[in-house]
Design a protein that fits this description.
Layout: H1 3-31, H2 38-63, H3 65-74, H4 76-98, H5 103-109, H6 113-125, H7 131-148, H8 153-158, H9 163-182, H10 191-213, H11 223-252, H12 254-259, H13 263-275, H14 282-299
Helix pairs in contact: 1-5, 1-11, 1-13, 2-4, 2-10, 2-11, 4-9, 4-10, 5-13, 5-14, 6-9, 7-14, 10-11
């Protein structure tokens, strides 16, 4: 393979790894829902990530601090936005949702991410939205309704949804905002450095939220399975996946990167069947077909007829 082909393939390989690591996060979080509260798991996740990254990133930050300090001062609102959306709220919403719904449901609903990114890119950066894309949004929403109502017509009539599905759907725009904000990051805040900084900034808020949560969900030692899941989530779903995602989005943009999340339900469904014993239902198939059809309409450019 030539150097040019490797350079072009590299960001897409990063996106494949990202979605595999994230799929494991959904399955692990569902598996240890009894051992951790949602905010506790989010806190330990980013504490582990910050501890692992500190010896790797901190020396470079100290070395470049004179040049980095004005960049941080100028872009503090951007860092706060990345911290709040991508680190604190998104994962907390997902972990709350996974206490009430299956991992398969969660990863399939995550397939709405490209639509959320398209809408946020339009709202924040005024990216154009065509009538064809609006039709795609509508078709995908029908697929979402099939999944969250379990294909039961009576649930459509009285709007009886699984609260876990609602939390997960509410998380999608948060990650979309995070990904659009990544376009605006200065080049000094790259890769692992950015992941470390946002995790350190998030930890005080997460620690306070964890303390409040412990008043309602008692804290106890999770056992070796819970500890192993937390380590996996901290190392792979946080450090490795976030670094891969940030690097890929910087090259291909949030819309193209968003389309890669279709790998996540494929990986996630297989992992959920292997490790959690979950089985897909017929409504999963019809729902995800609707979501994929809508995303295809919204994200794949229409073929243009060549002039005569």
């Amino acid at each position: 393979m030539s150097n040019l082909m490797r350079a072009r393939a590299w960001p897409y390989l990063l996106l494949v790894c990202t979605n595999l690591f994230w799929a494991g996060n959904w399955v692990a979080a569902r598996g240890v829902r009894g051992a951790f509260g949602p905010l506790a798991l989010t806190f330990w996740r980013w504490l582990i990530a910050a501890a692992v990254l500190a010896p790797l990133v901190a020396p470079g930050i100290r070395r470049d601090w004179p040049a980095l300090k004005p960049v941080l001062a100028t872009n503090w609102k951007l860092l706060a936005g990345l911290c709040l959306t991508g680190v604190i709220l998104f994962q907390s919403f997902v972990y709350v949702g996974l206490r009430h719904t299956t991992a398969i449901n969660g990863v399939l609903l995550n397939s709405t991410m490209p639509l959320a990114m398209m809408i946020c890119a339009w709202a924040m950066d005024r990216d154009t939205v065509s009538p064809r894309q609006l039709v795609g949004v509508f078709v995908s929403l029908l697929g979402v309704l099939v999944i969250v109502t379990r294909g039961e017509l009576s649930h459509w009539v009285d709007l009886r949804f699984n609260i876990g599905d609602v939390w997960i759907l509410a998380a999608m725009p948060l990650w979309a905002v995070y990904s659009v904000l990544l376009r605006r990051r200065p080049r000094e805040l790259h890769g692992m450095r950015l992941v470390f900084l946002v995790s350190v900034l998030a930890l005080p808020l997460l620690g306070a939220a964890f303390a409040v949560e412990s008043l309602f969900i008692p804290v106890h030692w999770p056992g070796w399975e819970g500890a192993a899941a937390a380590l996996y989530i901290g190392l792979f779903a946080s450090v490795a996946a976030m670094a891969c995602w940030n690097a890929a989005v910087a090259v291909v943009g949030p819309n193209v990167a968003g389309f890669s999340v279709h790998l996540l339900p494929a990986f996630g469904a297989v992992l959920a069947m292997l490790f959690l014993g979950e089985r897909p239902e017929w409504f999963h198939l019809w729902g995800v077909l609707g979501i994929f059809a809508g995303v295809a309409l919204a994200t794949i450019p229409a073929r243009r007829t060549a002039p005569a």
